């Protein structure tokens, strides 16, 4: 249990130390106007306070990823704790903070717009298609996962089809209505339930003295379990997730001051890391090791693990509340996945979103496509989601590195994790059954060549961008709160 507790302490310390360092590197301008005021439209650009934005951000980014991913990652043993802690502090939280803050500096722009601005016009089109595909996968995964949990919780008395329909109806409303009408009102309450459920499971393990395995030199690399690259894609949310790059611009459009960014973007990623630690520990400690966990996963997937762990630690009533907290996670990320997809498409085609019919024309085709994807096997969807997710993280980290390079600041804080994940995703897709199915040795060589080539290309483009003095932020000179309120 010492490894588990030390890991959580390190995450918290990381927020107050490395988080502050990253904030200093970026260079916050506390008095600079944010898009919530300069672009106010009472639909997507709506000023909200720090507490509300923080809880919404946490729910936006914390889907089933920081629960299902760490549960499956628990099969690797305590080494999973290392990736969650190191990944969250030095990769995931940096990724989220830079994406959110650069978006604030650019009218609340989404990742495709930022990629076009800092990585070239071609990347704008590529990332736009890639981001929409990722969000469709996320939205679909976050329909089927909570539907399965609800079906099990109600012992099947409500049909799966009816549950799916109810979730889709909620998603449609949350996607179309102004952000402060549903999301801004219910997310803070849901956020409290999420925190209570996670703390309940974590405290339950501590109080009962659960046998959470310690990290040792002998289990640092489990026998017959290849850690690289699978561990780094299995545990994505909770350590590093490209999905977050599609969500942070939603809150960058409601943030009132740049000074709030560290708490909202960096801090909520650390909170997600704590949630991931708790569920990874539960997976390792409660089911008689990897063999028992594997059997439970084979019988009912991560959803059954959640149900069994919650009931075991908290009893029938407490366990039900904990399961409800877990159900809320994917639902409150699925709705913003579709909302983000709607906003990205609207930005790409320069379609105003003040009228609900304009939002409807974009949203309906997304929901029709997503419903079709629910017919595909969840496990297969998750594999494609994992790769697409981490590839998106690579793009976002390189955007952050380019921004800092042009600004002549410490770009290595973003480029180093970007390079690592670029190599990881390339090895995976070259070797994986859903990819090119190459021998692992060839995959390593191919990934090395691709990584070196792309990093060299980055520096060539970065030097050119710095020489051309690519603008880093929108011009808000002449703006004042009194003008914004007219």
Quickly give the CATH architecture: Up-down Bundle
Tally of contiguous helical segments: 19
Distance between the termini: 57 Å
Point out poorly predicted stretches: 482-486
Element pattern in H and E: HHHHHHHHHHHHHHHHHHH
What is the global morphology? globular
Mean pLDDT: 89
Largest sheet: none
Strand content: under 5%
CATH superfamily: Amino acid/polyamine transporter I
SS content category: mainly alpha
Residue share in helix: over 70%
Query: How many structural domains in the coordinates?
Result: 1
CATH topology: Amino acid/polyamine transporter I
Q: Tell me, what is the CATH class?
A: Mainly Alpha
Number of DSSP-assigned strands = 0
Oligomer: single chain
Give me the Rg, rounded: 21 Å
Give a verbal description of the structure.
By secondary structure, the chain is mostly helical. It has one domain (2-398): Amino acid/polyamine transporter I. 74% of the residues lie in helices and 0% in strands. It is built from 19 helices and no strands. Helix 8 (121-153) crosses helix 9 (160-176) and helix 13 runs antiparallel to helix 14 (289-348). The longest helix is centred in the middle third of the chain and has 60 residues, at 289-348. The termini are far apart. 53% of the residues are buried. Residues 482-486 have low confidence and may be disordered.
């Amino acid at each position: 249990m010492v490894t588990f507790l030390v890991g959580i302490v390190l995450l918290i310390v990381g927020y107050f130390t490395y988080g502050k360092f990253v904030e200093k590197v970026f260079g916050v301008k506390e008095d600079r106007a944010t898009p919530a005021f300069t672009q106010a439209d009472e639909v997507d650009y709506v000023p909200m306070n720090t507490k509300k934005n923080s809880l919404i951000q946490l729910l936006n980014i914390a889907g089933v990823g920081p629960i299902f991913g760490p549960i499956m990652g628990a099969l690797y043993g305590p080494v999973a704790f290392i990736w969650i802690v190191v990944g969250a502090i030095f990769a995931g939280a940096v990724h989220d903070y830079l994406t959110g803050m650069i978006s604030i500096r650019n009218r609340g722009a989404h990742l495709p717009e930022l990629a076009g601005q800092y990585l070239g016009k071609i990347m704008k089109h590529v990332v736009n298609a890639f981001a929409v595909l990722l969000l469709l996968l996320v939205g679909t995964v976050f329909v089927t996962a909570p539907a399965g949990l609800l079906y099990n919780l109600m012992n099947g008395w409500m049909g799966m089809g009816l549950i799916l329909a109810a979730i889709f109806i909620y998603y449609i409303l949350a996607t179309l209505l102004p952000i402060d009408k549903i999301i801004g009102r219910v997310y803070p309450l849901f956020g409290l339930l999420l925190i209570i459920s996670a703390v309940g499971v974590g405290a339950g393990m501590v109080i009962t003295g659960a046998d959470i395995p310690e990290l040792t030199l002998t289990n640092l690399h489990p026998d017959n379990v290849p850690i690289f690259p699978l561990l780094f894609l299995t545990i994505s949310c909770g350590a590093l997730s490209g999905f977050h790059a599609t969500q942070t611009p939603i809150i960058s459009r409601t943030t009132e001051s740049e000074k709030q960014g560290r708490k909202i973007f960096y801090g909520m990623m650390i909170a997600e890391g704590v949630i991931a630690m708790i569920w990874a520990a539960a997976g390792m400690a409660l089911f008689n090791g990897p063999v028992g966990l594997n059997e439970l996963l084979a019988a009912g997937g991560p959803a059954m693990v959640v149900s069994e762990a919650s009931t075991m630690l908290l009893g029938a009533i407490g366990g039900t509340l904990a399961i409800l907290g877990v159900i809320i996670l994917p639902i409150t990320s699925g709705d913003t996945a579709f909302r983000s997809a709607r906003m990205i498409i609207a930005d790409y085609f320069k379609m105003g979103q003040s009228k609900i019919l304009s939002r409807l024309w974009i949203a309906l085709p997304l929901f029709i496509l997503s419903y079709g994807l629910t017919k595909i096997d969840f496990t297969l969807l998750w594999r494609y989601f994992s790769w697409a997710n981490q590839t998106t993280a690579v793009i976002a980290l390189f955007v952050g590195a380019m921004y800092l390079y042009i600004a002549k600041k410490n770009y290595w804080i973003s480029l180093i994790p970007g390079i690592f994940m670029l190599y990881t995703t390339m090895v995976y897709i070259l070797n994986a059954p859903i990819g090119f199915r190459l021998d692992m040795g060839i995959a390593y060589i191919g990934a090395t060549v691709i990584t070196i080539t792309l990093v060299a290309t980055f520096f060539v483009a970065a030097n050119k961008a710095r020489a051309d003095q690519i603008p880093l932020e929108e011009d808000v000179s002449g703006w004042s709160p009194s003008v914004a309120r007219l």
